[in-house]
Design a protein that fits this description.
Layout lengths: L1 H14 L9 H15 L4 H7 L2 H20 L1 H10 L4 H18 L2 H18 L4 H16 L7 H9 L4 H24 L24 H18 L5 H13 L6 H6 L3 H19 L2 H11 L7 H15 L1 H8 L7 H13 L9 H10 L8 H25 L1
Helix pairs in contact: 1-2, 1-14, 2-14, 3-14, 4-9, 4-11, 4-12, 5-6, 5-7, 6-7, 6-8, 6-10, 7-8, 7-19, 8-10, 8-19, 9-17, 9-18, 10-18, 10-20, 11-12, 14-17, 16-17, 16-18, 16-20, 17-18, 18-20
Length: 400
């Protein structure tokens, strides 16, 4: 029965919905956790112990910091600076670099949510083809978030579970990330004119820009710098993130309720549910059997040719966070294995439109500006970019 519950939970997460029910992936994860509790496979005490509090604390703290960027209008200011570029290819490079840099230290979904309307409005107003710029935003956000152990939820989980230090993580992932960004730019630059077109009235577009507030913006930048410095020390990362969150919430202008409303509580609930589901599988003995079966079959997860495709394929099937949680108990806890899982799970999100929430956010937020980013549009760029990125990740495993 525990194996059936586990398989049913992950199958539902992979499908994403059940006809007639308004359940999403978070709902399926929580139902799976409740099923393990109801069966008695996992006690309430064991369920509490299974939840990795430092991982959730680090994720929460960085979400709160990202919320301050959004509230202060920093994203608006960055988008405005990009829009002033008169060179189409410089604008493409600026969009790509800005998205990658922001997503390396902030929640990548929030970066896309805030910047997609700004990018869409800028390129439509300039009469430029919008798809290359929106694809640059989506893909660069995913790629850039792989650079650091705080760039996305799965990296946070991996770094906490495997105790991966900040600086070595960045150094190990820098080459695959930077080379992937370079390939992305070269691939998209062919679709962008060298000079801006003349004339043309852009269609009316809604304006959702947040007014820029200098004080909160300076506070956000100072806290980001302080956090990055502390991440390089022996101070536990989750304590640094919670300290940053406390300082963000201590504000004269930003109501705590408004800041906390921007935190992705559904993602935190998804983590909690999956922690319990995976503990249920482990308690039933099936995790140990899977490890023995893989070892007996000669599956070598220390090889990039094996690990990278496995992580990417599973990530596309069930999502990068569930895939990471599923694989971590099955793989050897070596540093280079952790780096490879972080890279592969993140890079794979670029393959298809639904491979990453960031992709879907960009498509949804660009729609009011008359820009349609469809499945085929994304596939034409996402597949080659993903394949090159994954090859780079596999090659990096040889050098680590």
């Amino acid at each position: 029965m525990p194996l059936a519950v586990f398989v049913a939970t992950y199958a539902a997460i992979a499908v994403g919905r059940i006809p007639g029910l308004a359940l999403d992936r978070t709902g399926f994860a929580l139902l799976g956790a409740l099923a393990f509790l109801g069966l008695g496979t996992v006690s309430l005490e064991a369920a509490k112990d299974s939840v990795d509090a430092p991982t959730l604390a680090l994720l929460f703290g960085m979400m709160v910091l990202s919320a301050l960027y959004q509230q202060s209008g920093l994203y608006t200011r960055i988008g405005g600076a990009l829009a002033r570029s008169t060179n189409p290819r410089r604008l493409l490079a600026g969009t790509l670099v800005s998205a990658a840099a922001l997503s390396a230290v902030l929640t990548n979904d929030v970066v896309c949510f805030a910047m997609a309307p700004l990018v869409a409005a800028s390129v439509v107003r300039a009469g430029l083809p919008p798809l290359p710029y929106l694809l640059a935003l989506a893909c660069a956000t995913n790629i850039g978030s792989a650079l650091t152990p705080i760039g996305n939820p799965q990296n946070i989980l991996i770094s906490q579970r495997l105790a991966l230090p900040f600086a070595p993580f960045v150094l190990a992932c820098a080459a695959p990330v930077l080379l992937s960004l370079g390939f992305l730019y070269l691939f998209l630059a062919r679709r962008v004119p060298r000079v801006a077109p003349l004339g043309g009235e852009p269609p009316a577009a809604p304006r959702e820009e947040t007014p820029f507030q200098r004080g909160p913006a300076v506070k956000a930048l100072v806290l980001t710098g302080a956090a990055l410095v502390l991440f390089l020390t022996k101070v536990p990362a989750h304590l640094t993130a919670l300290g940053v969150a406390a300082l963000v919430l201590t504000s004269r202008r930003m109501y705590s309720r408004s800041t906390l409303a921007l935190v992705d509580w559904h993602l935190l609930a998804l983590f909690c549910g999956l922690f319990v589901v995976n503990r249920g599988l482990e308690a039933s003995g099936w995790t140990g059997r899977a490890v023995e079966a893989l070892a007996g079959a000669g599956v070598d997860f220390t090889s990039g040719a094996v690990l990278v495709p496995a992580v990417a394929g599973l990530g596309l099937l069930v999502g990068n966070v569930p895939a990471t949680m599923l694989l971590l108990p099955l793989v050897p806890h070596h540093l280079h294995v952790g780096y490879a899982i972080a890279l592969a799970s993140t890079f794979a999100g670029n393959a298809v439109l639904f491979g990453s929430i960031a992709n879907l956010i960009v498509a949804e937020r660009a729609a009011p500006y008359g820009v349609r980013l469809g499945f085929r549009d994304h596939l034409a760029v996402g597949v080659p970019v993903t394949l090159v990125s994954l090859v780079l990740a596999a090659l990096a495993m040889v050098l680590w």
